[in-house]
Prior knowledge:
- The protein is 54% helix and 18% strand.
- Strand 1 and strand 2 form a beta hairpin.
- Helix 1 runs antiparallel to helix 2.
Amino acid sequence: MNPGMIKKIQQMQKDMVKAQQELEASTFYGSAGGKMVQVEFLGSREMLKISINPEAVESPEDIEMLEDTVVAAVNDCLGKIDAETERVMSQFTGGGMPGLF
């Protein structure tokens, strides 16, 4: 392999690591139930915060609905992390490696 190609590959590896680190440090937000439940995650999938609107629980019967809403908000946020990760990383993986093929 020629030295120019090796340098290109090494730079792409550095760029991929940097992009992954930036994604992991980014903050993502998810919500459900008309924003009755809101969550905040890092791109590394660490939950930072959950907010539940007090109006979400009026009676003990509302607990099951609230639990479902929390799950929906968490899944909403994790889906956003997955979508952004795919968008960012596809620039490195989606089109093959320029110059190699």
